[in-house]
Amino acid sequence: MDCDELSISEITFTNETGENIDWISISESGLISGTPAQTNVGVTTVSITVTDGSLTASDEFTITVENVNDEPEVLEPYTVTLQEDENDFTVDLNTIFSDDDGDALTFQINNEVVGENPILTASISESTLTISLEANAHGTQNVEVRASDAVSSLDYVIVVTVESINDAPSAVSMDPISLTENGEGMTLDVSTLFIDADEDKLSFGMLDFSASAFTATLDGSTLTITPITDQSGTAEITVTANDSYVTTHNTLSVTVTPINSLPELISSPELALDEDAATETIDLSTVFSDPDGDEMTYSINVDEASSAIFTIALDGNILSVTPNADAFGSGVIQLAAFDEIGAETGTSYDLPVNVMSINDAPVFTLDVTSFELENNFTSTEMIKITMDVPANEAGETITYSISPENSSVANVSIEGLTISITAIVDASGSETFTVTANDGNEVNGTYSQTFEVTVEEADIAITLGLENNSVNVYPNPSSDFIIVKGEANDRFTLINLEGDVVLQGRLNEKTDTSHLSNGIYLVKETMSRVIIKH
């Protein structure tokens, strides 16, 4: 041994895979030192070569770094910021915690609920942390999570901040509102229909609506609903609440339940009729109406005094009123209308009826209206006038006239209630005479009837062939008899056109011809002929 001074000419540090490592160093004095990290666990080989200036020598030795457990650690500070009412938040805790040993970590919640009014709940499933927010809650809450490996554990507080956002007012459901037709209304505090989680002051409104059964008004937070008279049905009211940011609607159903309503009087007619006028009708559906739309039935009645003036009848809803003959005055018809439901109770109306007195025409009849008279008739023919005057007009003075006043057919005159007809010499023809009665009133003051007078033409005088002898045949044409007049007191023979003798008689005497057939005949006196009958 020379005891020469040695120096290190080469030194290496390698791990088990032969890679150089840098956690070990050597000082100038030859002191080897180092602090192994978790990654340096294992065997490190130190190879060293020394020299004395002439010779070298090499050797190696190993340094074994034994593993000791490392606690889990937080990779970096971690906080959570959410907004109020946000959906569930999840995070993988392996992204927050780590273990240098590479150990698998397990997790648990150390504080499930913190404080009296927690704003969230937290849960862990395997390595997933889930944070669920309480409704309408905001603020800050700590969630303490414990991460553990097989040997040790680490508690870490995650600060969760929930930022406040405005919460819209929420509507509170309400049972349908039921009112009764013609009943009392109601009031409602609409603030009970909404909840504001932020406890903001709310303002209220009401949307336009259409309802035939009720009215609704809103004053502040007071809603007033009032049924409309005689109306029923269902409609909706929409009330709004606003917290200065958001408006929320709440719809209420309102029903007005119907009750039976009696028919109503919708008009008050009065009847004014003329005496002896035609029947007047009134549709009672124009007098009464049923608010519920029920079908109506009617009744009518008159007292004894009214029934003496007019007669009534009812056909369905049509009332007929007929003035009695020659009656006038005032009366009343008692009307009543009933509906289907309240048939025992109805609505009444007394219908005034006034029948005004009207002059009756001076009506009369003639007992004879047609005359067929012989030429130069010698009798006075009579016509009797019979009056038909109502008792209430019996005192009227009636005058009569005949037209034409002058006739070429016959003389006609009137005296009292008798018409006289006398002949005008040798006059013939037909005339229609008009008899007019006048009671002096402007209305219906006159009445007329006619009669006809026919006067036959004069006889034809025919001179038969007897010397100083002439024969007249009367009447000619003839129907029931003939008189053959002549100066000679002799007989005559009646011969038909076939030459047959059908009748014989004496001159100047009435001979019956009623049994003869209609036709033309010859009368023969010695050598004379004349046509006497058709």
Describe this structure in words.
By secondary structure, the protein is mostly beta strands. It has six domains: 10-65, no CATH class; 73-163, Immunoglobulins (Immunoglobulin-like, Sandwich), CATH 2.60.40.10; 170-257, Immunoglobulins (Immunoglobulin-like, Sandwich), CATH 2.60.40; 264-355, Sandwich (Immunoglobulin-like); 364-455, Immunoglobulin-like, CATH 2.60.40; 460-526, no CATH class. The strands form 15 sheets. A four-stranded mixed beta sheet has the order 7-14-13-10, with no helix packed on it. Strand 11 (120-125) and strand 12 form a beta hairpin. The termini are far apart.
Descriptors for this entry?
four-stranded mixed beta sheet, Immunoglobulin-like, disordered C terminus, 6 domains, 47 strands, about 525 residues
Number of strands: 47
| Continuous helix count | 1
Please give the share of residues in helix: under 10%
CATH class of the largest domain: Mainly Beta
Multimerization state: single chain
Strand count, sense and barrel status of the largest sheet are: 4 strands, mixed
Total of domains: 6
Average predicted local confidence, pLDDT: 88
What CATH calls the topology of the largest domain is Immunoglobulin-like
Shape annotation: rod-shaped
pLDDT below 50 for ≥5 consecutive residues: which ranges?
Answer: 461-469, 526-534
CATH hierarchy: architecture of the largest domain: Sandwich
Derived from helix and strand composition plus strand pairing, the structural class reads: mainly beta
- Bin the strand percentage: over 45%
